[in-house]
Amino acid sequence: MSATPTIESLGADGWRRKSLPGFAGLIGPLWARREGDGWAYGLLAASDHLNPAGVVHGGLLSALLDHGLSAIAWEALARRACVTVQLDTHFLAPARAGQFLELRGRVVRATSSLVFMQGEVSVAGNAVATGAAVLKVLESAAPAP
């Protein structure tokens, strides 16, 4: 990927823009890319994503972790809906406008009712945040995240 990502360079690298309803649609636009058996999620940081200090807001990083880990769990559990019951986020480095945030995560353990997840948000291969989540598996089917 180029040093300064663009919509065109993201598409050329296999990223596809997602149109999502609700809150997830407000924080984006979000991007997704198939990687092996799983998915990576991304966000091109813009000025609207910054806090008063001029770096990407921690709430945005947490929301990206929450959404991405939930989507990864949804896929891993044969598209069974999950909701977050706990999310621990660790902020490691600042991210800035113009940078592409990439989220990758994995299922650590899944039971019949809970899914334990770990994830990392990075910029150009450098971690900016990590997270661990516990998700509750819902009984009924729900639409895709």
Feature tags:
globular, alpha+beta, 21% helix, seven-stranded antiparallel sheet, Thiol Ester Dehydrase, Chain A, 145 residues
Oligomer: single chain
The coarse overall form would be: globular
- Under CATH, the homologous superfamily reads Hotdog Thioesterase
Number of domains as seen in the coordinates: 1
Largest sheet: spatial strand order: 1-2-3-5-6-7-4
Strand count: 7
Radius of gyration: 15 Å
Could you characterize what this model shows?
- Helix content is 21%, strand content 41%.
- By secondary structure, it is an alpha+beta fold.
- The protein has one domain: Thiol Ester Dehydrase, Chain A.
- It has a seven-stranded antiparallel beta sheet with strand order 1-2-3-5-6-7-4.
- Strand 5 and strand 6 form a beta hairpin.
- It is globular.
- The chain starts with 6 loop residues before the first helix and ends in an 8-residue tail after the last strand.
